Amino acid sequence: MKLIVQRVKRAKVVRVSDQKTVGEIGLGLFVLVGFKKGDTEEEAHKLADKLSKLRVMSDESDKMNKSINEVRGKMLVVSQFTLYADTKGGNRPSFINAEEPEKAKKLYEYFVTKLKEKDIQVESGSFGDYMQIEAVLDGPVTILYD
């Protein structure tokens, strides 16, 4: 399981097929999450717990010292199978290591549920759909969990 976490001033996800905004936040964290074959709910639970406690939000002295809940921020979580792109074999990436869509969707929904159980306001993308994403990064602050 991989996460790319970016601190944002605002972020929005639009489903291209109908131009509907499916997720939108102000101050908070924009999270891309990818699942590899063999990932488990236990791993998703652990990463949700770790992410909920991540202290990258600014305090009164503009230091990265607060969690998302402490600043009443939100998260926008988007599934991103391309995080498991393998480019070793040439110029066209292979996604053979990415989890199958049905299993990945279950893990994605489980991950989002676990974040919500931490009293985090979570918006999400539209799993499996082509989306356009707008994000205004803050800092920028980008953290990779692998």
UniProtKB/TrEMBL annotation:
Sequence motif Gly-cisPro motif, important for rejection of L-amino acids, location on chain: 139-140
Catalytic activities: a D-aminoacyl-tRNA + H2O = a tRNA + a D-alpha-amino acid + H(+); glycyl-tRNA(Ala) + H2O = tRNA(Ala) + glycine + H(+)
Location in the cell: Cytoplasm
Cellular component GO terms held in the UniProt record: cytoplasm
InterPro entries: Daa-tRNA_deacyls_DTD, DTD-like_sf
Subunit structure: Homodimer.
Function: An aminoacyl-tRNA editing enzyme that deacylates mischarged D-aminoacyl-tRNAs. Also deacylates mischarged glycyl-tRNA(Ala), protecting cells against glycine mischarging by AlaRS. Acts via tRNA-based rather than protein-based catalysis; rejects L-amino acids rather than detecting D-amino acids in the active site. By recycling D-aminoacyl-tRNA to D-amino acids and free tRNA molecules, this enzyme counteracts the toxicity associated with the formation of D-aminoacyl-tRNA entities in vivo and helps enforce protein L-homochirality.
Family stated for the protein in its record: Belongs to the DTD family.
NCBIfam families associated with the record: D-aminoacyl-tRNA deacylase
Record's protein name: D-aminoacyl-tRNA deacylase
UniProt source species: Candidatus Woesebacteria bacterium GW2011_GWB1_39_10
Gene that this sequence comes from: dtd
